[in-house]
Design goal:
This protein is mainly beta and about 230 residues long. The two termini are about 15 Å apart.
Length: about 230
């Protein structure tokens, strides 16, 4: 599976998670290159965005690397490794040990992946926003996602929320804002396809617009997939 690493172009954005901390810490950085079967090399994260995290990056720290490989199918690739060297000159870079194993999953085959990201869903009429609601994206595929809102126990109507009492129905038009840590929200236009009440919550099946390919791909390059979940799905 290391051939997936060799297909990664220099300059691509990747995500790194410091897995040795009690609270998961993630940052985005730039892939520099490889020394085959020895090192995977990345830039030190930006000091303005990730100043505090940089103090936790030193030799021996265990991390998880994730990136989206743009090939014919489109794949999420992830692996565990350790920081072997921190290079200060001529610019700050991290030399990571070559991974013993690499996980990958196709993201354009209709499969869904767990997400668990906070979202804001705006209901639209022909000209404006008629209501907004905070919820959680439960899973996602290239074509759509599932969003859950919690309901009050006494709520009797299926399409009623605790916050805005928005009535959701199939074919409603919506704008979905997906919030990721340390990144700008990803905004997608969408259509509601399914509305279900489940376990004192409201779950919406949402279809993305066919024009949103680039924004959807940016979601997959963010904090979507847990490497443990990838392993369990095999």
């Amino acid at each position: 599976m290391s051939k997936k690493i060799r297909q990664l172009p220099p300059g691509q954005r990747i995500e790194i998670q410091i897995s040795g901390l009690n609270v998961p810490a993630r940052f985005q950085t730039e892939f520099v290159g490889i020394v085959n079967n020895r090192w995977f090399i990345v830039m030190m994260p930006d000091s303005k965005k990730y100043g505090e995290l940089r103090d936790g990056l030193y030799e021996g720290v265990p991390i998880v690397v994730r990136f989206v490989l743009e090939n014919d199918n489109g794949e999420i690739v992830a692996f565990r490794t350790d920081i072997e060297y921190v290079l200060a000159h001529p610019t700050k870079m991290l030399f990571l040990d070559w991974p013993k194993s690499v996980e990958s999953r196709v993201i354009r085959s209709g499969r869904r992946f767990d997400a668990f990201l906070p979202v804001t869903l705006d209901k639209l009429d022909e000209t404006s926003v008629v209501g907004s609601q905070q919820g959680t994206m439960m899973d996602i595929s290239e074509s759509g996602c599932r969003v859950r809102f919690e309901l009050e126990e006494e709520a009797d109507e299926v399409a009623e929320s605790t916050e805005t009492k928005i009535q959701w129905a199939p074919s409603d038009k919506a704008k979905l804002q997906v919030h990721q840590k340390n990144r700008e929200p990803v905004v997608l236009t969408a259509i509601i396809r399914q509305v279900h009440k489940k376990d004192r919550g409201l779950e919406l099946g949402i279809q993305f617009s066919s024009q949103e390919k680039d924004r959807i791909n940016s979601l997959f390059s963010g904090s979507l997939v847990d490497i443990d979940a990838l392993s369990r799905s095999q």
